[in-house]
Structures are given as C-alpha cells and as structure tokens.
Amino acid sequence: MLKGKQIAVIGLVVLLMGLLFSLDIKGLVKEEGQHAGEGAEAATQVASISLESVSEAGKQNLSSNMSQQITDLESQLKKADASNKAGVQRQLAEKWNDVNIPAPSAFYYEAIAQSSNGYPDWLKAGDLFTSAYQMSSDSLAQPALVQKAISSYQKALELQPESLEAKTGLGVAYVSGTPNPMQGIQLLLEVVKKDPENINANMNLGLFSMKSGQFAKAVDRFKTVIAKEPKPETWLYLAMAYENLGDKENAIAAYTKGKELAADPSVDRLVEQKLQELRK
Predict the structure, then answer these.
(1) Angle at which helices 38-48 and 141-159 pack, to 10 degrees?
(2) What's the helix, strand, coil split of the chain in %, to 5?
(3) Of 51, 79, 137, 239, which is most buried with the most CB atoms under 10 A?
(4) Exposed, middle or buried by CB within 10 Å (0-12, 13-18, 19+), for 128?
(5) First to last CA, the chain
(6) What's the whole-model pTM score?
(7) Per-residue b/e over 69-79, b at no fewer than 16 CB within 10 Å?
(8) Residues 197 and 173 sit within 8 Å (Cβ to Cβ)
(9) Residues 259-279: pLDDT tens digits?
(10) Cα 216 from Cα 34, distance rounded (Å)
(11) Cα separation of 141 and 133, whole Å?
(12) Does the pLDDT at position 7 exceed 50?
C-alpha cells in the first residue's frame, strides 16, 4: 500500500515529467468539430462508472488487512437501517480517503449528500471527485468523474450561491473536462475578483495560462500563490513559466528553490537536468 508521502512524490515526478518537457494545451484548444456529441458521450460515461467499480479497482492497491476492513464496513452498510446508514458511509469514505484513493470516498460522500442535502457534504463530494479525476489515468473514467464533480459543485452552489470554494471547483472542472473551458475560467476570475489572494483559483488560473501559452500571466498567478503557500510544485511551475519567457536567471532561481523544498532524489534528477540546460 502506498503511503501519502510516496504518492505525493510520485505525483510531483509525474507532474514534472509531463510539464518540464512539454506543455499540453488539451482542454483549452480543441479541433474543430470535436465538440459534437461530447455532452452525450460524457453522460453515457457517467452512467458507466459506479461505486462498485471504483471500489473493486481500489482494493487491488490495498493491503489485505485494509481491504478486509473496508469489506467488513461494506457488509455493515448493507445491514444498516436508515438511522445508521450515513454513519457507516462516512466511515467508508474516511477509510478510502486515508489511503489516498478518492473515487470511492467521493461516491460515499455523494450518497451522504443526497440524503442530507447539506452544503458541506456536496462540497466534499465535489472536492473528492476532483481529486479522483485529477489522479485518474483512465480515459473512460476521467470524463465521468469530471461530470460527477460538476454536478456536486452545482448542488453546493444551489445551497450557497456565493461559495468561492464551490465556484473554484466548478471552474476547474469546466476547464479540465468539458467543451466550455472559458465558462470555467470566468468562474475562476470571479473568485479572484472577490478574493485576489485565493490560492486554489490563482493556482489553476496559472496552470491554465501556462497551457494556453500566456506565461507572463502565469508568473503573476504563481507568485501570488507562493506569497501565501510556498510549495515546491508552485516554485517549479513558476520556473517553467520563466523558462518559457526566456528569463533564464529567474528560472534557475525558481527551479533551485523548488528542488530544495521538494528534497527528493527523483525530483532532484529531473530538475538538475533542466538546470544544466539553462546554464549552457
């Protein structure tokens, strides 16, 4: 079973491998005619993914002990009456969350929210579906999880229309997995207009600026994030933006800072390669 820190490091290495050497504009630029039928396809894919399918897949990555704990709770859930059902669902959601497998946890929170119709539960479901689609490499499951995230955030906004958290999550989902990326970007711009230092909205606007080749805008967004939360990945994104602007001095400084904060040999190797290229 992978530990949280191991997963974080793997995620950072994948991030670097994907972005240090190429900038993918998928999601912001689509070929003409590609939009036709995408909504119907996404709706079909939503129906094709289920709690049972993601739980079964998730168990393959668990220790036998943890898998048995979850199976026991699933048995309890089947026998639970209406007054106890939500409690067991929360236990299952937290078990999956503890092992950093968000898709089953998201489905449990969705079920809880359907019963409670509470804003915190819908927001939690949306956040977990977001984590699930961002971590997924399954091209069929990913669009379905995006649609689940969108639905959850929309229900959260019905209950709290001014929620910046729900608007941010919805904006990210629109840009990441729908034919309407500008609708999502507008939501994120609404968020930063009301909260100029919002970390999540600025981070994602920075990433979307990178993907669309607007590197100067990306620099401003990442610097705003770093001022409040100086994580290694943000420094590395900032370095990439500087590099694409041809600003070698600032790129080297940002790569070096990101490497120091990451403090991981796998990240060190990738970043050192970039530093050698920049110093030539």
Answers:
(1) 90
(2) 80, 0, 20
(3) 239
(4) buried
(5) 42
(6) 0.80
(7) ebeebeeebee
(8) no
(9) 999 888 888 888 998 899 999
(10) 29
(11) 8
(12) no
103 vs 101: CA distance, rounded Å = 6
List the one residue out of 129, 138, 209 whose CA is nearest residue 166: 129
Calpha distance 277→117 (Å, rounded)? 54
Which domains are assigned to the chain?
39-179 (1.25.40.10)
Portion of the chain with pLDDT greater than 70, in percent: 83
Residue with tokens 């709706």: 43
Contact 35, 91 (CB under 8 A): no
225 φ, ψ to 5°? Answer: -65, -45
Q: Which two tokens stand for residue 203?
A: 């981070």
Closest residue by Cα to residue 202 from 213, 217, 182, 180: 217
pLDDT of residue 13: 44
Letter string b/e over residues 11-48, b meaning 16 or more CB atoms within 10 A of that residue's CB? ebbeebeebbeeeeeebeeeeeeeeeeeeeebeebbee
**Closest by alpha carbon to 72, among 91, 50, 98, 53?**
91
The rounded distance, in Å, linking the Cα atoms of 120 and 122 is 6
Q: Are 67 and 96 in contact (CB under 8 A)?
A: no
- What are the tokens at 246? 């041809």
- Residue 50's nearest CA partner among 9, 95, 125, 106 is 106
- Looking at this protein, which amino acid is placed at residue 231? K
> Cα–Cα distance between 213 and 138 in angstroms, integer?
27
What gap in Å lies between CA 235 and CA 224, rounded to an integer?
A: 11
Cα–Cα distance between 252 and 280 in angstroms, integer?
12
Q: Give the chain's radius of gyration (CA, Å).
A: 20
